Amino acid sequence: MEYRELGQTGLVVSRLCFGALTVGPLQRNLSPQEGGAVIRRALAGGVNFIDTAQLYRSYAHIREALKGLERPEDVIIATKSYDFTRDGMAASLEEARRELDLDVIPIFLLHEQESEHTLRGHRPALDYLLEAKAKGIVKAVGISTHHIQGVLAAAEMPEIDVISPLINATGIGIQDGSRDEMLSAINFASEQGKGVYAMKPLGGGHLLSSWSEALSFCLEQKCLDSIAVGMKSFEEVDNNLRFFNGQRDLPDPDKTYRKLHIDEWCIGCSMCVGECPNGALDIVQNKAVVVDPDNCVFCGYCGSVCPEFAIKVI
Ligand code: SF4
Ligand code: SF4
C-alpha cells in the first residue's frame, strides 16, 4: 500500500481510503458489527484512512472497527457536517467524538460546498472548526464538494487544509463543468498545498463495468493524495486492496449494479427532490421519479430525508 502526506496536514494516509457511506443505512445497511468487520478487514490490509459523514450514520460501524485496536488514534478518520452555524457545528463535532469514541477527530469537513458564496454562508461553522483545530480537537479542516467552483474557492483559502472533490474518469456527478476542468481545479488546489482525496471514483456505481479503468484513472492523478472507495463486503475490500497494491489484471469484482428504488407508498412530499444534489429527481403524478438517471450517483442522500423510508439505493 502506498502512503502519502495529505497536503501539508502532517497526516500520512493510505492511497486507498475506506468510503463508509456504503456500509451504513443509506446503502447496504449492514449492522455495526457486520460493517465494522468489513472496515476492520481493510485496516488489516493496510488502509489507515476512513471517510464518513454525519449524514451517513456509520459512526457506530467505524467505532466497532476501531474496538480493540492497540492505537485507534492512528486511524485517520475524515467526517463532515452540513451545519452552517457555530452551535450546529459544535454539536456535530461533539456527536462525532462521542459516537466514534475518540477525543480527537483527525479531519472535519464542511459537507458539499458549492462556491465561495456557500463557504461565506458557512463561515461561523468554519470558524468553530478552526478554533477546535487550535485546541487540538481537530487536526485538519476542509470541504467536500461536487463543484469545480467549490474546489477553486477552497484552494484560495489558507485556512482550508483538505478538499474532497468529486472526480472520476467520465466526470459523472460534477455539477458545474467537465472532468478536465475539475482536474485542472484539483491540480491548482494541490499546488496550493491542499490535501486532496477523491470521492466517487466509480461514479457511485455507474463505472463498475469499467472498474479497473476507472480506478486506474484516479490512481494516475498525482494531485490525488488518496481515493475514497465505498466498500461493503470482504470481497470488495480484498479486490480493492489487491488493485491498490499493484495487481491490475483483476476481473470486474461486482457485476451487481446499484439502482435507486422508490417504494409505491411514496407520498410525493418532495423532500427527496430538494435533497438531491444532482437534480436527478422530480415529482410526477404525486410520486418521486428519477427523471435524470445519468446524473444519479447513488449517494443515497435522498433516502436520508424521506419521512416514509420510501427511497433507497439497493
Ligand atoms: S437521486 Fe438520490 S441517490 Fe441519486 S444522486 Fe440524487 S440524492 Fe443521490
Ligand atoms: S421523500 Fe420519500 S415520500 Fe417524499 S417524495 Fe421522496 S420518496 Fe416520496
Describe this structure in words.
The protein is an alpha/beta fold and 314 residues long. It folds into 2 domains: 3-244, NADP-dependent oxidoreductase domain (TIM Barrel, Alpha-Beta Barrel); 260-313, Alpha-Beta Plaits. The chain is built from 11 helices and 14 strands. It starts with a strand and ends with a strand. 49% of the residues are buried. The structure holds iron/sulfur cluster (2 copies). Residues 262, 266-272, 288, 306, 308, 310-311 line the site of one iron/sulfur cluster (SF4). One iron/sulfur cluster (SF4) is lined by residues 262, 266-272, 288, 306, 308, 310-311.
Instruction: Return the string of H and E elements.
Output: EEEHEHEHEHHEHEHEHEHEHEEHE
The total count of strands amounts to 14
Q: Briefly, what CATH class of the largest domain?
A: Alpha Beta
How much of the sequence lies in strands comes to 15-25%
Distance between the termini: 30 Å
Number of domains: 2
Overall mean pLDDT stands at 93
**What is the assigned CATH homologous superfamily of the largest domain?**
NADP-dependent oxidoreductase domain
Oligomer: single chain
Summarize the structure.
The protein is α/β, with parallel strands linked by helices.
Secondary-structure topology with pairs:
Blueprint: E1 3-5, E2 12-14, E3 16-19, H1 32-44, E4 49-51, H2 59-66, E5 76-81, H3 86-100, E6 105-110, H4 116-121, H5 123-134, E7 138-145, H6 148-155, E8 162-165, H7 179-191, E9 195-198, H8 211-219, E10 226-230, H9 234-244, E11 260-262, H10 271-275, E12 281-284, E13 287-290, H11 301-305, E14 311-313
Parallel strand pairs: 3-4, 3-10, 4-5, 5-6, 6-7, 7-8, 8-9, 9-10
Antiparallel strand pairs: 1-2, 11-14, 12-13
Bound molecules: iron/sulfur cluster (2 copies).
